Amino acid sequence: MSVSNTFSRRTLLTCAALLIVVASIVAVAVIPQVKAEYLRGGTPMAAVYAFWVNVLLSVIVAYVLWFTAVRVKSRRFLSSFVLGLMSFLILLLGWSLSDAGSAYLSHGPEMQTAAIILIAGAIVYLIVLILVIIAAIRFPKQVAEE
Description:
There is one protein chain. The chain has 4 helices and no strands. It is elongated. Helix 1 (6-39) packs antiparallel against helix 2 and helix 3 packs antiparallel against helix 4. It is mostly helical.
């Protein structure tokens, strides 16, 4: 019995969509709050640039996952390596959101929403990480003849 690559493709496409959603929420909801706190003297502007880097890297990882889902037909060394690298980047991006969220919890009530959004985004990144690993493992070694 051969494994179909439909599961892996759909999983990778879902992961790419989740990454785009989290990146959009961070860009729309968190960055303006961090800028507003910067105006009150609470946060250095470097945090805003770090969030933009996180958003940009999330979009790049989502694009690579989408490209892999659309173009790759079977599991080979290069596709496995790329999915492993994307998993590592997702882990780092989620870790940075979690760290920022836990740091903003102590900044007072005006940053609670941003902290909750960041921690929820980190949880979504953890789910995406698990799904990418499952998709990489379940990717068939050869394309099934249909």
